[in-house]
Structures are given as structure tokens and as C-alpha cells.
Write a structure and sequence with these properties.
Elements lengths: L1 H36 L21 E8 L10 E10 L4 E7 L4 E4 L3 E4 L2 H19 L5 E6 H10 L3 E5 L3 E3 L7 E3 L2 E5 L1 H9 L7 H19 L2 H5 L1 H8 L3 E3 L5 H10 L6 E5 L5 E6 L2 E6 L1 H13 L13 E2 L4 E2 L4 E2 L4 E2 L4 E2 L4 E2 L4 E2 L4 E2 L8 E2 L4 E4 L3 E5 L8 E6 L3 E8 L2 E5 L5 E5 L3 E3 L1
Parallel strand pairs: 1-6, 3-12, 15-17, 16-18, 17-19, 18-20, 19-21, 20-22
Antiparallel strand pairs: 1-2, 2-3, 4-5, 6-11, 7-10, 8-9, 13-14, 23-27, 24-27, 24-30, 25-26, 27-28, 28-29
Helix pairs in contact: 1-7, 3-4, 3-7, 4-5
Length: 434
């Protein structure tokens, strides 16, 4: 008799588990069906050009936080976080993209990257970032301020150490008023924490806090109690979310559970070494060295141990960047077992290109010194390229009348520094030495 009761109890527990699991799966499918069908942020003018993920290899997901206070407005993306999940290395890498980064927006022209969302919704922002970084984006999630706050409230808030008093008068609804010190933040307070730009490093500090919050949320979401609350959380944020994550739900869920979120790498795009703070007209922008940014991102994605220039096994980009087993690019870039490229680039077992480029078992290009001469752009619009040759990537542009500092000559190309501090190659046919 006792044996029968025992088996009945086991059977009852199994039924409850199956029903609960089935309810969770149903809730997830229902959520992703809804948020895929509803397009609160799309303009209707752009196709969705995400890459196809087959369930194997790394998958890249773009998270967009939108400052949408009026449903009739076409808002910019206040937050852009690109997460790369690698099932082979179990590594999670999260890149926060600076919203003032000055890039080419397909079909629109050059502008701050956050303007792409206003011009063409998530679809155009995806196209812009794929074009900028040359990596595929497979999935996206877009939510607004209210959706973000609901997510934080749904997981019971987060604990952070606010470094100083955060105070900023906004519109009476989204004012910021946080006190210095360790504290538990609810959704609205967490939104204030990731939005504040009043510190000395402004958006640099802000994106760093955003990456911190991503780590905290990821850790809390993996707990059993949060998994049980998943249906409630999804239902809460459904009205504020747009996504295509439901296209491969089971594979993504399995992958997410296998990853080590506590070892998450978080980085800034562009890295400090690969950007120049300047003005376009009267607008302050971050002008990226596109070639260096791409090298930096690839260094992180292809080597989970790669870090910043000061990391012994990391990636150095920009002027004097060093990575002993990573990738160094830009002026004086060094990579002992990676790739050194640019002026004085050195690679111990790799290829060095540019002036005095050295590769232990690689090769160096032929270069002649430009002796620090200056040159005036004679063409109306001249492309600045990552390497000498029309087949190489355009990383910027210079315009008629601009004065360039010539660092070297490589055949029919000049390696130059622009007035904004960018380095690249221009064809000698469209500039005139002074």
C-alpha cells in the first residue's frame, strides 16, 4: 500500500512539472508571437535584414532601449547593446555602442548612430550596425523606458553602488534623483541609474553602468525563482517590446542556459583608442576609426581572453595599442602573435603593414616617408581607407580644401592624419602636397 502511495505521489509531481513546463513554453511562444507581430517601433519603410542562425555557432542579439515618451514621435535609440553568445566557448560578450558615434546610415548619410532608429526603426539601426561593424545580427529586442522599468521590477529590483548623487531635471516624469551609496533600486530608479549623463565622463560612464546592469539582470534571470516567474515577466513587458527572438526559441533557450553569465565580457564601442571627440557643424560627435573598431570587436569575439590594450592577452587598438596575443591596429599597433597594422605596426609571427611594418614570418609593404608634409584635398569628396587600395574598407571621408598631415606614401596612396585625428589612406590623385 505504501508503495502505491509513493508511486502516486511521484506521478502527481511529474504531472505538475510537465504542466508547469508546458505552461512556461506556451507563455514564451505566446509572448514572442505577439512581440513579433506588433511593430510599435517600425516605420514600415525598411525590411528586416537580420542574418540567419542555424542553431550552431555564435549568435548576435541587438538590444535597443528607446526614449519613446510620445507614441506619435519617431524616437532615437538611447541605448544599444550588442550581445554575442558563443556556444563553443560558453562566452558571453556584450558591447555597448556609444549613441554619438558618427557613422554612415544606409540610404540616409552620415549621422549619429542613434538617429538610424528614428529614420527607419529597428530595421535601419540593424542595417547600420551590421554595415559599421561587419558582423551579422541574428536577433533583436527593442523596448522603451517603461518596458525597461517593468523588467527590473519583475525581477525584484537590483543592488548597485551609486558613485555620487545623480540629479537631473527632465520632464517631471523622467527626472533623475538618486543618492550616493549602496542601495536597492526599483525599475524607475534603475532607469535613472542607466540614463544619467552628468558625470565627468558623461556617456562613457553611462554606457559602463548599462553594461553593469546587464550583468546583474542576467545573473538574476538564471535563478530558479526567476524561471518560475518567467510567464509573469513576459506578460508584463509584452506591450512595450518588439523582437524576432521567437524564430528559434528552443535553440536560443538551450544556449542561454549553458552560458556562464558570471564571466560575461563587457566592452565599449568605439573603444577610447579608436575614437576622436570632435564637432560636425555645431554637433558634438564621436568620430570612429572604423578599421580599428572592427579589429577590436573581432579580437574580442575570436579570442574570449582578449581585452583592452592594458590586458596582457588582450587587444590593443588605436595609437600605441598593444596586445601580446591579441590584435594591435592603428599607429604603432603591436601584436606579438596577432596582427600589427598601420604606421610602425609590428607582428611577431604575423603580418605588419604600413610604414616600417614588420612581421617576423610575415611581410611588410613598401613605404616611403612623407616627412610630415601636409596635403590639401583637391577632390570634392575623398574616401579615407583602412589600407592602400580601392578594394579596402572606407573608414571615413575628407572633403575639398581639407588639410591633411602626410605620414607616409605607399605607391599611389598617402597614409594621412585628418584634422579630426583619424588615420587612413587616401589616393594621391585627389590630394596635392604642399
Amino acid at each position: 500500500m505504501k508503495k502505491k502511495v509513493w508511486w502516486r505521489l511521484i506521478g502527481f509531481v511529474l504531472v505538475v512539472v510537465v504542466l508547469f513546463a508546458g505552461y512556461n513554453v506556451y507563455s514564451m511562444f505566446s509572448f514572442f508571437h505577439t512581440v513579433s507581430a506588433n511593430k510599435p517601433f517600425s516605420t514600415g519603410d525598411q525590411p528586416l535584414n537580420t542574418a540567419k542562425w542555424e542553431g550552431k555557432g555564435a549568435v548576435n542579439i541587438l538590444f535597443m532601449g528607446v526614449d519613446r515618451r510620445d507614441p506619435n514621435d519617431r524616437p532615437r535609440s538611447d541605448t544599444m547593446l550588442l550581445a554575442s553568445l558563443n556556444p563553443d566557448t560558453k562566452q558571453v560578450s556584450v558591447f555597448s555602442i556609444m549613441r554619438d558615434t558618427y557613422v554612415d546610415i544606409p540610404g540616409v548619410g552620415r549621422s549619429k548612430i542613434n538617429a538610424a532608429f528614428a529614420d527607419g526603426g529597428p530595421e535601419l539601426l540593424i542595417d547600420t550596425i551590421q554595415n559599421f561593424l561587419k558582423i551579422p545580427i541574428h536577433y533583436y529586442v527593442a523596448t522603451d523606458f517603461e518596458g525597461f522599468a517593468k523588467i527590473i521590477d519583475s525581477i525584484g529590483g537590483i543592488d548597485v553602488n551609486v558613485p555620487e548623487d545623480f540629479v537631473h531635471a527632465d520632464d517631471g516624469i523622467y527626472d533623475i534623483n538618486l543618492k550616493k551609496g549602496q542601495q536597492h533600486l526599483n525599475g524607475q530608479q534603475a532607469l535613472e541609474y542607466v540614463r544619467f549623463r552628468g558625470t565627468p565622463r558623461a556617456d562613457f560612464d553611462r554606457t559602463e553602468r548599462q553594461r553593469e546592469v546587464v550583468k546583474l539582470v542576467a545573473e538574476k534571470m538564471k535563478s530558479p525563482s526567476m524561471l518560475m516567474k518567467a510567464p509573469q515577466i513576459l506578460k508584463t513587458i509584452e506591450p512595450y517590446t518588439q523582437s524576432n527572438l521567437g524564430d528559434n526559441l528552443f535553440s536560443l533557450g538551450t544556449l542561454a542556459m549553458s552560458l556562464d553569465s558570471s564571466n560575461m565580457k563587457t566592452e565599449q564601442i568605439p573603444p577610447v583608442e579608436a575614437l576622436t571627440e570632435t564637432y560636425v557643424g555645431d554637433e558634438a560627435v564621436l568620430m570612429p576609426n572604423v578599421g580599428q573598431v572592427r579589429d577590436y570587436v573581432q579580437g574580442i569575439l575570436n579570442d574570449p581572453n582578449a581585452g583592452a590594450a592594458q590586458d596582457a592577452n588582450g587587444t590593443g587598438s588605436g595609437k600605441n595599442g598593444t596586445g601580446s596575443s591579441g590584435t594591435g591596429s592603428g599607429k604603432n599597433g603591436t601584436g606579438s602573435s596577432g596582427t600589427g597594422q598601420g604606421q610602425n605596426g609590428t607582428g611577431g609571427t604575423s603580418t605588419g603593414s604600413g610604414k616600417n611594418g614588420t612581421g617576423g614570418t610575415g611581410s611588410s609593404s613598401t613605404a616611403q616617408s612623407g616627412s610630415g608634409q601636409t596635403a590639401v584635398v583637391t577632390g570634392e569628396t575623398v574616401n579615407l581607407r583602412a589600407k592602400p587600395g580601392t578594394e579596402y574598407q572606407v573608414i571615413g571621408q575628407v572633403f575639398q580644401g581639407d588639410v591633411l598631415t602626410v605620414e607616409e606614401q605607399v605607391n599611389d596612396w598617402y597614409y594621412v592624419q585628418t584634422s579630426t585625428g583619424m588615420y587612413g589612406y587616401v589616393t594621391s590623385a585627389l590630394v596635392k602636397l604642399q
